[in-house]
Amino acid sequence: MSAQTQIAELQDEPDIPRWSLGLRVAFRFCFVYFGLYCLCTQIVGGLISIPKMEAIDPSGLWPIKQVTFWTAAHIFHAKLPLVFSGSGSGDKTFDWVLTFCLLFIAAMATATWSVLDRRSKNYVTLYKWFRLFIRFALASQLVGYGMAKLIPLQMPFPYLTRLIEPFGNFSPMGVLWSSIGASPAYEMFAGSAEMLGGILLIIPRTTMLGALVCVADMTQVFMLNMTYDVPVKLFSFHLLLMALFLLAPEFQRLADFFLRNRTVAPSTQPQLFRARRANFIAIAAQFAFGLWMIGTAVYGGWGDWHTYGGGSPKSALYGIWNVDELSIDGQIRSPLLNDYDRWRRAIFDFPEAMAFQRMDESFAYYGVSINVNDNTLVLKKSSDKNFKSNFTFQRPAPDQLILDGEMGDHKMRMQLHLVDRSRFLLVNRGFHWIQEYPFNR
User: Fold this and answer.
1) Which of 203, 334, 337, 386 has the largest count of CB atoms under 10 Å?
2) Cβ contacts of residue 98 below 8 Å, gap of 6+?
3) Would you say the pTM of this structure is higher than 0.70?
């Protein structure tokens, strides 16, 4: 590029006004807080876009864990030790205390920064790079969660135990998971909306539109988490805040368009570089990174679908089996509702797990190992490593099963028959364009 072209581009650069004091302070706080939050949560793993990296919990790294534990014990007088990973919940005591610590650190850093850097007129350069970071941090989560719904994994179709569990026993989260899982088409639609927001964020020119889609998506997700008691309230709220951060510079233009009926000027968001060539390379790099991010999400989702999703292997004895007759130590047990030791059903869903349903409709869960070559079945308990129960099984017919063996110190024999899964209304009802009357059972 010639010197004259570079000079012309520099002359074309608009004058950047002095930011107000409030805007400078707000940016300092957002920079520190959102930066720390992304580095201390699963966002950093999703941003790196390495398969299975999301499983690594950065909140357990030094000194974050130690600072959070100290704060929990001395400020909030919480009982230690705190659960900080592996529970599946994003609203643990540890997470709330961590958020408090990050807010405090961000407030102190903002105050110190404001005192030491009083003369800066603006942070345009730092802002445009931080905005790029937030774009991809948010996009990584929208793409990840979107793919987990587009390939129906997050809310699977109700498992066999759910089909026979009384609705009143469901938790609010269980109701939400089962209702969305029972409609894979809706789950895929919701995933497509999240994927759309993430993809639009990857493209520089569609960032505002992507942020708007993300605000709509995350408002819906946050409200579902709040109203169905899903323990991702804190995290979904932060994703919503990050989307609003990206939209903040466009609020004036949005208000002019939607509320004031005024002509909307072009966006004044600065480009990363002054030189056209450098900006072209930066855009190409963003596209490449976005494709890598989407590709890893597709690869991981497809693998998970065949590992534990709808495409995963089923149990060799897959199905819901009603216990027609059960004898313990040679004594036949009548199906009495107050007989806690009498099984009502046996449910084989996954290759390495099964459940017995008691007469009071509660469940007992076991690990299971089934050998179809010698017709043996071994039960184990994760809570009791010494527990082991051995059975042999026979299938006189595809819908008949006989189990003989021992559980504890008792000999047991069960005769069972297979329940036709397709008879459940939730499974076979399907979709109807025409309904003369509502079918709401």
Assistant:
1) 203
2) 40, 59, 64, 68
3) yes
